[in-house]
Structure formats: C-alpha cells, structure tokens
C-alpha cells in the first residue's frame, strides 16, 4: 500500500487528507483558506505539514493538490484563480521545496471528475459539476477529461445564463456561479435581509422563508440553464453533481431535474446524480494527481 498527501483547495477551505492507493481516506485535516492574516499559499504549506505528521510511519510517496482556476498541469503553476487571488503561482515548486516529495498539481474539478470516472468505471462521456464556493466542471468526452488549449476548459461557472445579470467575481455579468455557487446563495440571501453563514443554513429555511425559496429557485434556474447548454453540446451519459452544495441532495436534484427536463423540449435529459465519492470527491481527485506524479497507478474502486 502507498499513500499520498492530498489537498483540495477551495475559496473558503483547504480540505486535506492522507489517501491510500485504493482511494481510502486514512486521515483528514481541514484548514481555512485564509487564516490569521495568512493567505492561501501559506495555509496550504501549513496544512501539508500537518498532513505529513498525520501520515506518521506511512511515508507518503507524493503530494497531490487540486485547485480551481486556470492550471498549467505540465509545470504545476496556477495561472489564474479568481477566488484565491492567485496569478502565476508556482505551487509545485513551492511544495516540492517544502516537502522534498514529488508534487502533482491539477485542476480540482477535472481531477475529481477523473476520480469519479475511476470509481464508477465510466468510459463514456459524462459531466462532473462540483458546486462549492465557486462552480466548475469536468467535461469527460469519450473517457478523456477535456482541458483545452490553455488548461481553461470546463469553466462552467462562468457560462453566462442571464445576460446583463448580477456581477460575478470574475467580472462578467449573469454567470451561473453568480446565482448558484454556495457563496452566491448566501450572499443573495443576505442581500434580501436574511441571516445565514452557509448554503446549508439557507436550505434549512426552504418552505419557511420566502427569501430562501427565491434565491434557491434562482440557483436551480441558473444551473438548469447552464446544464441545458452542456446537454445540447455533449449529449452526456449522465450529469454528476459534487461539492458542498450537492450535499443538499434531493432538495437540489429534484427541482433541478424537473427544470432541466422542462427546458429540453425535444430530447430527454441525461440522468442527474450526486458524486459516488460524495464530499470526498475533491480530496480523492487531489490524491489521484499525487499518485500520477509519483508514477503509481491507483486502484480506486468503491465497493
Ligand atoms: Zn463569472
């Protein structure tokens, strides 16, 4: 058995784990992305140090890091990540210097999508959409996760579904992410006078607070419009939702499936489900990047 130190970098939190080559999480440690005036890179280094200690005698073979944004996977450089304030950050060099281990750096959604693919044995085309602080997608076309010419493919969160709509952190108006990301749901609920610290708190108020109902309906609508486009372009076998917001389960899947079906007038919608790895999808995706960098082929099978 070999293990890697894996970190799924998010706009709000860094999710770390010690993961073995069967995809099992042996230990977990999380850390806020911004803490005590320290930025994401400093907190990432601190978390990797914590994970090294947690791995103990297991002697990790590599570090794997999944990050949002535009990632040059060949050099391990984050070219641009709006939620992290990163531009041309050489994460691989930084972490290899700090740990002395090989470090694989890749796009969080693509890595999680490939981990999902390994776990489900899917070789066809499907779409994996993690919904967290931001929204991205892994577009798996005939078994290959599309990365694009500059590593920027799959920015599903920044597909515009409401032209001239609300401003997105990326600077565009009316992006899917401006309505449906966890951060957007909370921000829009508060803008209506509501009080909530997380999407789960807004979801808990559905059916009780019309402001929660309104922002959730807007989130579902924005996602459905985006997924309508993806369905038309790719004809995927299924659409898999991951990330923290997908933890809402049926409260998200049921209205989203209905809305998508009503938008697709002349074809049936692809099946919608949540990720097999659930909330661990990002961590396992990051672990996959580490194993690949170390030249280890993991055997991720779910029972
Ligand atoms: Zn945007």
Explain what this protein looks like in three dimensions.
InterPro entries: ATPase_NBD, ROK. Belongs to the ROK (NagC/XylR) family. This protein has 303 residues and is an alpha/beta fold. The protein folds into two domains: 3-111 and 279-294, 2-Layer Sandwich (Nucleotidyltransferase, domain 5); 123-278, ATPase, nucleotide binding domain (Nucleotidyltransferase, domain 5), CATH 3.30.420.40. The protein has helices spanning 40-55, 91-99, 108-120, 177-180, 182-191, 199-203, 210-234, 250-263, 281-294; strands at 3-9, 13-20, 25-32, 62-67, 70-72, 77-81, 86-90, 103-107, 126-130, 138-141, 144-145, 239-242, 272-274. Strands 3-2-1-4-8 form a five-stranded mixed sheet. The protein has a five-stranded mixed sheet with strand order 11-10-9-12-13, with helices on both faces. Helix 1 (40-55) runs parallel beside helix 2 (91-99) and helix 7 crosses helix 8 (250-263). The longest helix is centred in the C-terminal third of the chain and has 25 residues, at 210-234. It starts with a strand and ends in a 9-residue tail after the last helix. The model has no long low-confidence stretch (mean pLDDT 93). Zinc ion binds next to loops.
SSE topology sketch:
Elements: E1 3-9, E2 13-20, E3 25-32, H1 40-55, E4 62-67, E5 70-72, E6 77-81, E7 86-90, H2 91-99, E8 103-107, H3 108-120, E9 126-130, E10 138-141, E11 144-145, H4 177-180, H5 182-191, H6 199-203, H7 210-234, E12 239-242, H8 250-263, E13 272-274, H9 281-294
Parallel strand pairs: 1-4, 4-8, 9-12, 12-13
Antiparallel strand pairs: 1-2, 2-3, 5-6, 6-7, 9-10, 10-11
Helix pairs in contact: 1-2, 3-9, 7-8
